[in-house]
Amino acid sequence: RRSLLAISDMPVGQTRVEIIVTAEDWAHAEVRGDVEQAIDKDIGKRTFVVRGKTAACNFLALPRAGSPPLGVSGTFMYIQLRLTGQPFVLHVDVMNQDKFVIRLSFSSRYVMAKRAGTVLQLPSPELKETAGKWTVLCLDLAALMRAHLGARDGTYLCVKGVTACSTMALR
């Protein structure tokens, strides 16, 4: 199965990976704006391309609004993506042990990590250097929450949803 997003309890090379969504699960995604499926000419694989510079108007969200949350509990998230060099935003909605939803928002637009209400904004300047190249982004969700939210809010339970916004391709 071709995976778009994967969650694991362990780093790559070890066991147990839950596939969140495969290329065949397109119907479970909410699509807004300039988003399309396309065969990437460099790798010859089906990809999901999100274009448009306005994140609120151009996105791919998993799951679709009104659907049950993903609810996968692995602590490592792997995302295959290719950025364009333009500003990007990737949201991962996670639930803590108190069943409180916190949005981890990764973007090239942020200059420092900060919490704004239920959103943790995390700068991702190192991803700018990968523009034009397919990259596997590995996120240790539990460690990110502990480091930035502390003991109470930072106890990871599961992923509720993922939203990819503006100027990126996903595989």
Write the layout of secondary structure elements.
Layout: E1 3-8, E2 17-22, E3 30-32, E4 35-39, E5 46-50, E6 59-62, E7 76-83, E8 89-96, E9 101-107, E10 114-116, E11 119-123, E12 135-140, H1 141-153, E13 156-165, E14 168-170
Sheet having the most strands: 7 strands, antiparallel
Mean of pLDDT = 82
Number of helices: 1
Whole-angstrom Rg: 15 Å
Approximate shape: globular
Are there runs of 5+ residues with pLDDT below 50, and where? 1-10, 12-17
What is the tally of beta strands?
A: 14
Order of helices and strands: EEEEEEEEEEEEHEE
- In whole angstroms, the N-to-C terminal distance is 12 Å
Strand content: over 45%
Share in helix: under 10%
Overall structural class, as computed from helix and strand content, comes to: mainly beta
Provide a compact summary of the structure.
Helix content is 8%, strand content 46%.
Structure description:
Helices cover 8% and strands 46% of the residues. It has 171 residues and is mainly beta. Strands 1, 2, 4, 5, 7, 12 and 14 form a seven-stranded antiparallel sheet that branches. The longest helix is centred in the last third of the chain and has 13 residues, at 141-153.
List keywords for this structure.
171 residues; mainly beta; 7-stranded antiparallel sheet; 7-stranded mixed sheet; 14 strands; 8% helix; globular; disordered N terminus
